[in-house]
Every structure is written in C-alpha cells, then in structure tokens.
Write a structure and sequence with these properties.
This protein folds into 2 domains: 158 residues, Mog1/PsbP, alpha/beta/alpha sandwich (Protein Transport Mog1p, Chain A); 113 residues, 2-Layer Sandwich (TolA/TonB C-terminal domain), CATH 3.30.2420.10. By secondary structure, it is of the alpha+beta class. Helices cover 22% and strands 40% of the residues. It is built from 6 helices and 21 strands. Strands 3, 4, 5, 6, 7, 8, 9 and 10 form an 8-stranded antiparallel beta sheet that branches. A 4-stranded mixed beta sheet has the order 11-2-1-12.
Length: 313
C-alpha cells in the first residue's frame, strides 16, 4: 500500500515538474521563411530570394536604349517588384549582350547627385553598384551580366539600409560555371504569374497641367500621419530612330497608379508623341522604382501624373 502511494506521489511530482518547465519555455519567434520565395533564371546561373507577395511584368519585345552612340535592344524584359516591411525590392532581367551593361549603368547613374559608385566581384562576376542616400530615402542598385542576360537589382527604404535590403542582396547566388544552380525549391522567373497592367489609351478631357497642379497642391498639405510617395528611380526613356530622324520633340504625360505593393498596375495616357516614343515612356514607367504612400503606418495606392521629356540636342 505504501509502495502504491509512493508511486502516485512520484508521478504527481513529475507532472508538476514537466508543467512548470513548459511554462518557462520562451515563445519562439514567428518563422517568416514562407514569406519569401527563391526564383532562378532560365539558364540556371542566377537565383535570388524575393517576397512571396510580388508583382511580375514580362514583355517579349522589350525596348531599346541609346548611350554613347550605341543602341541596344532590351528584349525579353522581366520586372519583379515587391514591397515588404517598408522596403522595396526589385529584380529586372533583359535578354541582351553583355556590351549593353556598361552603357545602361552610365545611362542610369546620371541622377541624382548623391551617388556612391563602386565595382566588386562575386564568384568572379563583376557587379556595378550605385548607392543613393538622401534625407528621404536610401536606395542601392546592382548591375551585372551573366551568360546572355543582364540584371538590375534594386532595394530601397525610407529608413536607411534595412535588414530586408541585406537579406535580399545577400540571397543572390551567381555561378560562372557551365552547370546550372541546382535548387528544386526555386521557381523559374519565366513561370511566375504576370501581374496585369491596365493601359487606358483614351485621352482625358481634363487639362493635364491643371491635373498636375492639383497633385502638387495635395502634396503641399501637411499631415504628420501621411508619408508621401517617393520616386527613388525614374528611368530616362531613349529616343527611337524613327523619332530622331523626323525630329519629334516634346513631352509625354502619363497618369500612373502607384499601388501599395511598389507596382504600377494602371497607366493612362494624357499626352502622347508618335514614332514609338509612347512605348518607350510606358516601359520607363513600368521600370520606375518608388516607395508607396503611407497613411497611419499602412501603405496605400495613389494616382499622379508623371512627365517624360524628349529633346534632341
């Protein structure tokens, strides 16, 4: 009898110990691995992690750009944008020769003035890096080529170099070898689901100048709870050969929707130009990088007019 009582007491004591240990266990932090997705190039020589909530744009024909009297064709255009934890990350890929890389870096590094340009190598592949830091934002862009494509990585935030920027850039895997990167869990960029863009070609009856002034007036309003949209990179569209031969000059105005995910899902043509310049401007708009407007800590979509100028010097 005493032995049975002793056994029961021992079991009770063990139960109490186990329960107390369970109460003392610290809660584990939430695993955010599922919030990210690894994607890889078709040729298998480049892979990188992106937020699982992304926007993806693809166009087979792409656009052309001119620099140093050279004209390059950025075909098979791929653009991935995502806004995650107050940080914008983007991957751009173009099917073109390696000789286009240097000209593209020169074309896109003319603005703004606050630039730190550096070159370094990663697995024997040279990377051109441009850092822009102002009182409003921090932006880092990396350009490199691999096999028959060139790539542009962009990361930006209002709060300096964030952990998300580090995670994004450090996740880049490159190989200069012939074999492909073997990663069964990664997804081909070409297999991503494209995000549609609504293109409105009907001209607005409202005068574009008044529309722009209204946008600026709203921007001047002071509200501590609102952080206005910040355009950290506005690509400069190049002339087409047809437009240059015919001497076409002027401005193109597009009414753009800057959504909460760092993507432009709607483009309305306000003022256009002929000879292929409209296509150049639209694709420049698609490639724009921005930090979305934030109200009370929550990103929100807004619409504003953006102008692209074409001048023959």
């Amino acid at each position: 009898m005493k032995r049975k009582i002793l056994c029961v007491l021992i079991l009770l004591l063990c139960s109490v110990c186990i329960y107390s240990q369970q109460l003392q266990v610290s809660p584990t932090p939430s695993d955010k691995t599922n919030d990210w997705l690894r994607v890889r190039s078709e040729t298998g020589d480049v892979s990188i992690e992106i937020p699982a909530k992304y926007s993806y744009f693809y166009d087979k024909d792409g656009i052309t750009f001119s620099q140093n009297r050279n004209t390059h064709w950025l075909k098979e255009m791929q653009v991935i944008n995502a806004y995650y934890e107050n940080t914008l990350v983007s991957v751009e890929s173009f099917g073109t020769g390696n000789e286009a890389l240097k000209d593209l870096v020169q074309l896109e590094s003319f603005f703004p003035k606050e630039l730190v340009v550096s070159d370094f190598k990663r697995n024997k592949i040279e990377i051109h890096q441009i850092v822009s830091e102002t009182s409003d934002y921090y932006c880092i862009r990396q350009y490199f080529s691999s096999k028959n494509r060139i790539y542009v990585l962009t990361a930006a935030s209002r709060n300096g170099k964030t952990e998300i920027i580090n995670k994004f850039l450090e996740s880049l895997v490159l190989t200069s070898k012939e074999e492909e990167i073997k990663d069964e869990k990664s997804v081909l960029i070409s297999n991503l689901k494209p995000t549609p863009i609504n293109l409105i070609t009907k001209k607005r009856k409202k005068d574009a100048k008044n529309d722009t002034n209204k946008t600026n007036a709203n921007k001047d309003e002071t509200d501590d709870k609102i952080s206005r949209v910040i355009i950290v990179k506005k690509p400069r569209p190049s002339y087409t050969d047809a437009a240059r031969m015919k001497g076409v000059q002027g401005n193109i105005q597009l009414r753009l929707k800057f959504d909460e995910n760092g993507y432009i899902p709607e483009i309305e043509i306000v003022k256009d130009l002929p000879e292929g310049l409209m296509r150049q401007a639209i694709f420049a708009a698609v490639r724009m990088k921005f930090l979305p407007e934030i109200e009370n800590g929550i990103p929100r979509a807004i619409t504003k007019t953006v102008e692209f100028s074409f001048t023959i010097y």
